[in-house]
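Narrative summary of target 7.
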Amino acid sequence: MTKPMKIDFVSDVSCPWCIIGLGGLEQALNNVGDLVQADIHFQPFELNPDMPAEGQNIVEHISQKYGSSPDQMSANREAIRARAGEVGFKMAMTDQSRIYNTFDAHRLLHWAGLEGRQAALKHALFEAYFTEGLNPGDHDVLVAKAEAVGLDPVAAREVLTSGRYADEVRAAEHDWRVKGINAVPAVIVNDRYLISGGQPAAAFEQALRSIAAEG
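Modeled conformation, tokenized:
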């Protein structure tokens, strides 16, 4: 018997473990087949809400934020690249990559959800940032990616230039933090079950099967 599941995927488009976690979740959903009918909602979370528009070099940023050494960063990047490859995603980050502000990306994703194209845009923005090295806060990049997934580019630009959905995104970010979400990805199933981190497909599959059995 198919079990409907509401899945809130709290994440940032500049979070590498988020695309790894999303890939693992999608593989798991494919593996469980008709057991689960998933209704996925992508929820906003900003890793760096105070980041200026021009961004910051990734090595400089991670060193300041976490105190990581160049060797640690290199090792972490290789581990992330390998894990991303396992879910079919190409990571192309280098020492010259930058961290950017993602608030406008979240506003556009909110609108894409209303238009029924949120998942497609989420994937496109992950690829824009991690594979193509583009700025996910740049309006031209955002409009191009919106158009590429079938959204109206004129409407997309109007959303971005008008500041629309800013209040909704801020409210959602606040609500998730109040609920205790301080790191991403965070996957919340049926408003009850939390799966944290960029888990592999097997971990997500086990959790989904267990939740389905309980329901």
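DSSP finds nine helices and six strands in the chain.
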